[in-house]
Amino acid sequence: MKKTKQDKSTVALIHRPKVSGTPANYDKEAVDQVKGMLKEGIDYLGGMTKFVKPGDKVLLKVNSVYNTPPDSAWNVDPRLVEALVGLIREEVPEVRRVIVADDSAAVKQVKDVDTIDVMEANGIAPAAKRAGGEVLCLEWDSHIRVNIENARAFPYFHAAQSMLEADVLITVPKWKTHIEGYMTLGLKNAEGYFTRTLKQDGFTAHESDKERRHANDIHQKFVDTLNVFYPDLTIIDGLWAIQGDGPAVFTEWEVIKDFNTIVISDDIVAADSVACQASGFPWDFMVTTRLATRQGFGNGKPENQVIKGADLKKVKRQFVAPKMFEVQGCYDNVDVYTHGACVTGCQPLLRLTLNMPQADGSLAKLKEPVNFIIGNNTYIPPKLKPESTLLLGDCVWNEWVGLPAEGSLTPAELRDRGAFVVGGCPSFANIFTFVLPWIYEIAEKDAKEAEEQ
Ligand code: SF4
User: Fold this and answer.
1) Is the Cβ atom of 246 under 6 angstroms away from ligand 1?
2) What pTM does this model have?
């Protein structure tokens, strides 16, 4: 799998005014309709047989992020999965295997859940199996440490053997805005290449690539992986799309149910660029697209793209952008104190977490604000109530580096007086396991006291 070297890249932009059914509830007519969309797009690129040969093992790296119901739209649409697996089997009947795989974010965030459980819940597994595909948990696969010779930020990661052995890699991201990466499209779908625990291979949690890749250089890390896995095709699922604070959305308006659009290209960078433009943003809205274009992995610039199919101007819709770094002053009864928290670490994760109790009204029930301390060197006002304060993330404990700390409590003093401590760098898994229950417990207690008064 090599990086593309085309002067111009063809990108299929396929749109229909209406697509039958919903991700949760659809029939053969819907699958045939989506199959027609996929066939039209892939034919613009030379046809399925250009990419898939008899005897090939094809791996579809789908975006199966969470075990939410199909109509939540957090994950790739089962209609598209069923149509794509079916199309490959129809167009190349001698294909050896079609495998639908991911390493879901929910693994280790939700107790005792693996990617197959996630895919069963979100409708991807039944859809794949109906069409003759197999499903695979990448986290249970064997992993091999792969060094990236020309890495700028991610010199190695642990690649799943099934991915390394695939003859054809098709990446199938969901079309979503994203609080860490502006949007999550083809390049960000590499998240599923990274695994969290590799007990079967004798690794420890510290080898967790999902955590290693989270930091301010996350975008370059995704670009670095193109040296190892350059997808033969990128197929971006915008049948239903997500705007706002994706990938986890909690309000109706964030799911666009009539976008009915798919982007397909053999140039992952051009595909991401066109999807960005169709979402009303500039081609270089995402850092990954800028970096990958500059480093020669594809054609992000519109002048180097040939768009086939629908008219970009007619498909284009202005998506609501994610509020990536907005954690201060945004929520009822929440005060966030931060000096050095990462813009792709604890800040967006805290935002993602707070969106849930904000949407369900729990934050509004708090008698007084809860406090979060995130990032290093943060000034901690001495009058903060420890019982309603949470110290989040490992770098909270970093020593002061000469900033004026006079009058500040230290994290240790706050902890010793009873503040709640949640570690991690970032606090990815812990945030769901510990932070949300902590908020809900205080909200419940406050609501009960208010009732009794
Ligand atoms: S713990 Fe600190 S360094 Fe780690 S992600 Fe959070 S803010 Fe960034």
Assistant:
1) no
2) 0.91
